[in-house]
Amino acid sequence: MQLMPPAARPACWALYAAFSYADDLIDSGEGTPEERGRRLQEWRDALEADLTSGTSEDPIRLALTDAVWHWGLDLRDLLGALDAVQRDDDRKGVATWQEWRERAHAQNLSWPEQLMRMLVRCGLPVPVRLRDLPGFTRFVEGLYLTDTLRDLVDDLDGEDLWIPAEVLDRFQVTPAELRSRQWTPAVQQLIAHLAGQAREWLENSRRALRDTLPLGPSIVLDTAVELFGAELDALVRAGSAVLHRQVRVPRHIEWRILGPARARAAVVWRLTLPPGRDTVTDTARTVAARRTDAASPTGAAAGDRLGGPEPLGSRIAEPPLPPRPHRDGVRPPTIAAAHLPQHVAIVMDGNGRWATGLGLPRDEGHRAGAMALRDVVQGALEIGLPHLTVYAFSTENWKRSPDEVSKLFAIMRAELLDGELLDHDVRLRWVGSPDGLPDDVADVLRGQEHATRNRAGLTLNICVNYGGRAELTQAGAALARAALAGEIDPARVSEQLFAAHLPHHALPDVDLLWRTSGEIRTSNFLPWHAHYAELHFTDQPWPEVDRRDLWEAIEAYTHRKRRKGAASVQASVPARNEGE
Ligand code: FPP
């Protein structure tokens, strides 16, 4: 919790409090198991009612209700995890590792995924379905086994024992022997084996996840592995004491791990979260807007939004949210619609150099670039731009390392599925070719294109696997085929006919082409559509751009004289200084 962005911490505590409360109710030993089960059921029913009404009289339920509403948490999954805790009451232990694993997953996978949801809401495009990442379930198992060992003494005091019977048999240890706290060689071997097993799972998962997660979540995971490792060290050092008292990691060791991790996390959040998003205000505003739109989170509409693996397009807000204001309260310049460019195209350059310059991996640059795009899209909506096209992945970009390419695709997917872009009145169009593109990327692009097809605000064209010459070649080939089939007369091929055979013929001409990061070239970007575009080059790398830079580019455009080869400015596209 101390490593999460500050804005998310209260909700982390709320989740922790709710889960602990449920767990404590079951473990309390007060009353009969039936009475405890009934108390937990009543609490859970009250929680569902609170979540529907959006408030509660109970402080823990109120905190959880607020966290669910505030951060758009997956309520169904959370309640499923609570139900799994509740099911513990019906049994006294587990027979096999397989059963143990199922219990571990059912109770524990939802919580870290909720943290990821919070990070997405903080503006970081991260994968939410951690359980689909190779190695993550192992992490949860390592964590849970450590927890089982830590709680062993309490479990022995009560009636439950959560070490699988099959491993007790293997070490020829009986529950009765453990309960009588006999520190026999067999018990010693059993504890050493379980601690070694937990450590191996934690380390393996850390290795598997190292290259999958972005820096911020990696620090949280790495630190958790180190803290749990320290706990296992303490357990092993404690010897027979593990059967008599809860073993704690000495404070100075805990702080040796946590201190530097907190400093690193603070720096990484500052660098990788969009400005202002590590505070509560923006999220609160978004959620407040959602609250007015959605029914209750338990109702059908919100249930779809919050529920498990989401079908494509289900997070598309209905009705779309208004643009998120800039954190400094800046407003767009007032420019009459007739003076606005209709179509701005951007080469979002400099992500890699920005990241490398800060000593970060290149994919952190793309992640920060996705955040910059969010803000620019807000600015485009605010100023009333009809078409925005961004160069996200060119056919030349395949020359990059497979690792960078796959991370860039993962960022795009996460952004289009869980980011805020499509919460607004944005119609997504994919410009580019599916050839060679991973299916899951193409599916998201197509799916979100379909889901936003009726939007009328801003058309956001995302060029993914796009190449200008390839586009022209395709148009040429299509014309040649049509000519061979006798459908067109080659002598009558006009610009209009050529344009009609372009794969993206609906794309309007570009009025303003902007490239960041100091490069003065257009790099195979929209050669047909940008033939008469005004060019705008700026020095700052794309991750440092925000909506104000878009507005500046548009203002500069309004001062250009658009003659298009004529002696005076064309009436159809009045430059500001001519029209006024
Ligand atoms: C160029 O910088 C940038 C890219 C190849 C990727 C741009 C993609 C994003 C900003 C993510 C977009 C997200 C969505 C949802 C469309 P570079 O890496 O070439 O920088 P360098 O020139 O410094 O190496």
* Associated small molecules: farnesyl diphosphate
What is the CATH domain class of the largest domain?
Answer: Alpha Beta
Gap between N and C termini: 57 Å
Q: Count up the helices.
A: 23
What does the main sheet amount to? 6 strands, parallel
Q: How many domain modules?
A: 3
Order of helices and strands: HHHHHHHHHHHHHHHEHHEHEHEHHEEHH
DSSP strand content: 5-15%
CATH superfamily of the largest domain: Decaprenyl diphosphate synthase-like
Gyration radius over CA = 29 Å
Mean pLDDT: 86
Helix content: 40-55%
Molecular shape: elongated
The structural class is alpha/beta
In the predicted model, the low-confidence regions spanning at least 5 consecutive residues are 279-311, 571-580
User: Any idea of the CATH topology of the largest domain?
Assistant: Undecaprenyl pyrophosphate synthetase
Defining key terms:
23 helices; Farnesyl Diphosphate Synthase; six-stranded parallel sheet; alpha/beta; 580 residues; binds farnesyl diphosphate; elongated; Undecaprenyl pyrophosphate synthetase
What is the secondary structure topology, with strand pairs?
Layout: H1 9-27, H2 33-53, H3 59-71, H4 75-87, H5 97-108, H6 110-121, H7 136-150, H8 152-157, H9 165-170, H10 175-179, H11 185-209, H12 215-238, H13 251-272, H14 281-293, H15 300-306, E1 343-347, H16 351-357, H17 362-383, E2 387-394, H18 402-418, E3 426-431, H19 439-451, E4 458-466, H20 468-484, H21 495-500, E5 512-515, E6 534-537, H22 547-558, H23 576-579
Parallel strand pairs: 1-2, 1-5, 2-4, 3-4, 5-6
Helix pairs in contact: 1-3, 2-3, 4-5, 5-7, 7-11, 7-12, 11-12, 12-13, 16-17, 17-18, 17-22, 18-19
Bound molecules: farnesyl diphosphate.
